[in-house]
Amino acid sequence: MIQSTEFFWWKFELVFPPDVEESFLWFLNMAGIKSYAIERSPDNLQDQTLMVWLPSHEWLKKDREEFENSLLALNKAFREDVLNTKWEKIIDEDWSSSWKKFWKADPVGSKILILPSWLELPDIYSNRIVIKLDPGSAFGTGSHPTTRLCLEDLERNPPLGKKVVDIGCGSGVLGIAAIKLGAKEVRAIDIDSLAVRATSENIVLNNLSQKQLSVSLGSIENLANQLNPLSADLLICNTLSPVIKELAPYFFKLTHSYSRLCLSGLLVAQVEDITNFLSILGWELIDSYSSDNWALIRLCRNHP
After folding, report:
1. For S-adenosyl-L-methionine, which residues are the binding ones?
2. Dihedral of CA 123/158/176/32: which sign?
3. Secondary-structure class of domain 106-301 per CATH
4. Residue 113: CA atoms inside 13 Å, Cβ hemisphere, count?
5. Where are the alpha helices (DSSP H) in 93-156?
């Protein structure tokens, strides 16, 4: 019997809420999958669509079922929603351009533009500060509400001439933005080697030097020992509330009397609790901002 040698792609679609985006992107990168895109509708901020293109000869039925079940299980760890999924057979589509066409130039605030690395700068955004990112590297392109809150805060409070520390750097977008908004230097750190690799790649994409933005693999304790006695003027940490609580005892060691904290990854409902927790450690709330049930808080040391 002659077996078919037809080559095609499986296109997988999954509608999901924004708060699990970074977990999904982490999973895709761990699986070595780079041909994916996320489609967002301005009319529905609560749902977005993940699209993944998989070569048929590498992804048999059992592999596709395992792939889908893994994503659904990952979502269930965060919330109970049943996600809508779809598989489609794509024969004539050029996947190398198909997944890329869904990524667009993404304006943030009034000054910043997130630009996928393969796109030309649109004339309409020629006056913006451009941050080039590779969506296929890891951790997305700064589209999560908490990342946008941090970018907007950096724009409101540009770190001119300041030393910045980015704890849990992900793609490196916040450190890159800090440099492009005038920071003297940024030290970024993450416990995930994928994040360190992604940040390193994005540093190169943006023509920055290691002297301007350096990234290392390790814990906040490692960084505190490396930086001492060099203190940061601004400490950025975009992660979950329980993680912030674990890291908070090190914030004093990384900063000085007039430093500022920029903390996000928090739900609006968690702001009061985390603010009270940090107050006990000597930090005072300056401002808070919110978007789509997510929040950012800015703090300074509580001087008697």
Report:
1. 147, 168, 190, 238
2. negative
3. alpha beta
4. 18
5. 95-98, 145-156
| Interval 268-279: pLDDT, tens | 999 999 999 999
The whole-angstrom separation of Cα 79 and Cα 41 is 21
- What are the CA-CA distances from residue 231 to residues 86, 102, 106, 212, 255 (Å)? 50, 41, 33, 16, 5
The CATH number of domain 9-102, selected from 3.30.300.180, 2.120.10.30, 3.30.70.120, 3.30.70.1520 = 3.30.70.120
Residue 1: predicted pLDDT: 33
**pTM beyond cutoff 0.70:** yes
Q: List where CATH 3.30.70.120 sits in the chain.
A: 9-102
Cα separation, 42 vs 134, whole angstroms: 23
3-state secondary structure of 223: helix
Annotated binding-site residues read 147, 168, 190, 238
